[in-house]
């Protein structure tokens, strides 16, 4: 069986995601496996609907198997996010990774991935940082100097693609890579193009109560799931947690900030000070901001502090593969994966009791639920089993 992997957040699932799955099928995929972020996502936010509902969307719209990228990796830097996702897909046994791309040029993306793994790149990067450039700019300049592809790193999908391939090469993976031109609109565009819209624009429609207007940009089955979620009060909005987050950060010590992942260059001091004067999250982020720290990085750190992450407790590698949902074809992929995977493939959440990575996800999900108008009691990680699509 030819198995193609996709790394996604599906936040929420839209026509662009369906297009990528269709391209995977055209490329010969007999099974499509998605490794999907949990309830907190890389931009430093809650997912618009729970990972269980997004799993249903994916299965209804062409994915055969959905597995989870744990919070430690889902809410991390592009490098760590990619390393976790690629390790999971490698253990599942995919032969091809397909992804959206602004450039659509796989040769340039591969060349850039080799560049960022070189000794020369690290030296140039350090040189630029010492000159006072922000990490993103230092990275772009170093790549431009070495291979002339610096502008690729200005595009979010191409940047992730570079990290995906770099992570795969570090594992000596034999997976192939397919870049598909992103359709319709750019990553965070607020302007739709025909039936395509960015996930951020769709989220804005949903959060502003205009759920029906989002239907144009989503497959019908995916739309019906999110419409039901909206009717049931299961849409997540980080603003609901805003006061709780501010309260948590105001009582976080400098020492606790120092053990957050991705802390460097004294950013903990800025966060500590900003948390004590910011009256809302945008104001806190404004006080903490400098040209060296992207807004997404600061948002991730704010949520990391809120969830009490500790970098010393995060494993170097993903310790297990948790299955969120599958259909008949996905079940066949799982049969092989459970034999060949070097890390456990877990079908029952009770099997993960006591695992620190899973216990952190349990806590994150219990907190995530409070970001909904109609929250659930604690324990949703155990009351939701593997979602099976039988037809």
How does this model look, in words?
The mean pLDDT is 94. Strands 1, 2, 5, 6, 7, 8, 9 and 10 form an eight-stranded mixed beta sheet that branches. Strands 3-4 form a two-stranded antiparallel ribbon. With 391 residues, it is of the alpha/beta class. Helix content is 49%, strand content 11%. It is globular. Helix 17 (328-340) links the parallel strand 8 and strand 9. The longest helix is centred in the N-terminal third of the chain and has 15 residues, at 78-92. The protein contains 19 helices and ten strands. Helix 12 packs across helix 16 and helix 14 packs antiparallel against helix 15 (281-288). The chain has helices at residues 15-26, 51-60, 71-74, 78-92, 106-116, 119-130, 135-147, 156-170, 199-207, 211-214, 220-231, 242-250, 254-258, 267-277, 281-288, 295-307, 328-340, 356-368, 380-383; strands at residues 3-8, 31-37, 40-41, 45-46, 65-69, 96-101, 176-181, 321-326, 345-346, 387-388.
């Amino acid at each position: 069986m030819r198995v193609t992997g996709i790394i996604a957040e599906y936040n929420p699932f839209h026509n662009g995601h369906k297009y990528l799955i269709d391209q995977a099928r055209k490329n010969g995929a007999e099974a499509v496996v998605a490794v999907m972020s949990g309830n907190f996502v890389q931009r430093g936010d809650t997912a618009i609907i729970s990972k269980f509902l997004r799993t249903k969307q994916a299965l209804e719209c062409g994915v055969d198997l959905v597995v989870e990228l744990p919070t430690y990796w889902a809410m991390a830097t592009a490098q760590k996010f990619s390393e976790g996702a690629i390790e999971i897909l490698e253990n599942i046994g995919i032969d091809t990774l397909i992804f959206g791309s602004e450039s659509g040029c796989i040769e340039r993306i591969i060349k850039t991935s080799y560049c960022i793994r070189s000794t020369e790149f690290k030296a140039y990067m350090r040189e630029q940082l010492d000159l006072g450039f922000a990490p993103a700019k230092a990275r772009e300049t170093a790549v431009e100097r070495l291979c002339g592809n610096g502008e690729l790193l200005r595009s979010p999908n191409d940047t992730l693609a570079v990290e995906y391939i770099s992570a795969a090469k570090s594992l000596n993976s034999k997976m192939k890579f397919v870049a598909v031109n992103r359709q319709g609109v750019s990553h965070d565009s607020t302007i739709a193009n025909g039936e395509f819209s960015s996930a951020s624009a769709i989220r804005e429609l949903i959060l502003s109560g205009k759920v029906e207007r989002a239907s144009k940009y989503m497959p019908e089955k995916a739309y019906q799931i999110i419409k039901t979620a909206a009717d049931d009060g299961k849409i997540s909005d980080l603003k609901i947690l805003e006061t709780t987050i501010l309260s948590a950060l105001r009582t976080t010590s400098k020492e606790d900030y120092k053990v957050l992942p991705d802390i460097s260059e004294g950013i903990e001091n800025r966060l500590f000070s900003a948390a004590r004067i910011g009256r809302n999250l945008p104001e806190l982020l404004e006080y903490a901001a400098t040209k060296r720290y992207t807004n997404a990085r600061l948002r991730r750190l704010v949520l990391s502090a809120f969830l009490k992450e500790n970098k010393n407790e995060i494993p170097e590698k993903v310790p297990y593969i948790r299955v969120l949902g599958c259909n008949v074809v996905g079940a066949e992929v799982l049969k092989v994966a459970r034999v060949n995977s070097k890390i456990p493939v877990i079908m029952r959440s009770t099997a993960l009791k006591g695992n620190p990575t899973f216990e952190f996800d349990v806590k994150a999900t219990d907190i995530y639920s409070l970001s909904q108008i109609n929250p659930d009691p604690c324990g949703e990680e155990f009351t939701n089993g593997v979602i099976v699509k039988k037809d």
